[in-house]
Amino acid sequence: MSTPLTVSRALSASGLVPFEARLLLAHVVGRDRAWLAAHADETVTAEQAKIFDALARRRRDGEPVAYLLGRREFYGLDLEITPDVLIPRPETELLVDLALARLPADRETCVLDLGTGSGAVALAIAAERRKARVTGTDVSSPALALAARNAVRLGIDNVSFVASDWFDALPNERFDLIAGNPPYVAAGDPHLTEGDLRHEPQEALTPGGDGLAAIRAIVASAPAHLARGGWLLLEHGHDQADAVGSLFGDAGFADVRAARDLAGILRVSYGRI
Questions:
Q1: Which position among 146, 193, 215, 268 has the lowest Cβ density within 10 Å, counted as fewest Cβ atoms?
Q2: What angle do CA 171, 175, 179 make, to 5 degrees?
Q3: 200 secondary structure, DSSP code
Q4: Confidence at residue 1, expressed as pLDDT on a 0 to 100 scale
Q5: CA 12, CA 213: separation in Å to the nearest integer?
Q6: Contact predicate 271/256, CB 8 Å
């Protein structure tokens, strides 16, 4: 008679780092990680073991946990995530923090999130600033559909999503604040062939060349789409702050600054028109 597979045995046999193993097993058994810790000797059913083994194998082959779970938390929001979009990262929460600091909660404002993907930034801003009218744009139809699903499931109704290549579908609109996490990884960067990035949509990671093409296009066009005194905030690479700051200055932005993420990296540049 075979020994029943327990929670602790399933976790130890997974070949994964403990944190990821617990995330996946909790997902499979429909419990949280605290339950797993308190029920280490609980028996895992044969079907649960089969599903967990398949997920663990895919993770060992490099698939991101967020895609395996179909979920990722961002700024306190439980977002549906698919391989059609980038996985929201903790460092991008800085972009939201900086945007919220420039958006009063007591009056109506207009906000644009460029390259919205899962809708993470747009939804986080809209959830925190209910008087704001937030628009998210993307060229990817699957991404826009995903962002819309996230908005409906989370009950966030002051946000809309538009198919647009940056500003193309918004020729006459102006915003109080524009935020974006555009593709900025340089072509040939070894990180593109390592870790989770191998599985994420490459067009959302790199524009090719030196990685600044998308940022150049956004900065050049943004002044025509900002209200007087409006802000532009862009996430960028760890070594791009000086170059991005120069682009802001050349485009006529004032009060240009760069902010560091929790790792101490200059991650977001911003300025006022």
A1: 193
A2: 100
A3: S
A4: 42
A5: 46
A6: yes
Q: Which two tokens stand for residue 155?
A: 């009950």
List of E strands, the chain: 71-74, 77-80, 109-114, 132-138, 159-163, 175-180, 226-235, 254-260, 266-272
- How far is it, in rounded angstroms, from Cα 103 to Cα 88? 22
DSSP SS3 for 256: strand
Query: 83, 117 in Cβ contact below 8 A?
Result: no
pLDDT at 139 over 90: yes
CB 230 within 8 A of CB 273: yes
Q: What pLDDT digit, counting tens, does each position of 207-228 carry?
A: 999 999 999 999 999 999 999 9
In the numeric block, which tokens belong to residue 206?
A: 């790199």
Q: Decide yes or no: CATH 3.90.79.10 for domain 83-272.
A: no
Better-predicted residue by pLDDT, 168 or 188: 168
Closest to 192 (Cα-Cα) out of 145, 237, 132: 237
Place of tokens 């006529």: 252
CATH superfamily of 7-61: Ubiquitin-associated (UBA) domain (1.10.8.10)
Hey, what are 143's tokens? Answer: 């991404």
Residue type, 174: R
- Decide if 136 contacts 160 (C-beta within 8 A): yes
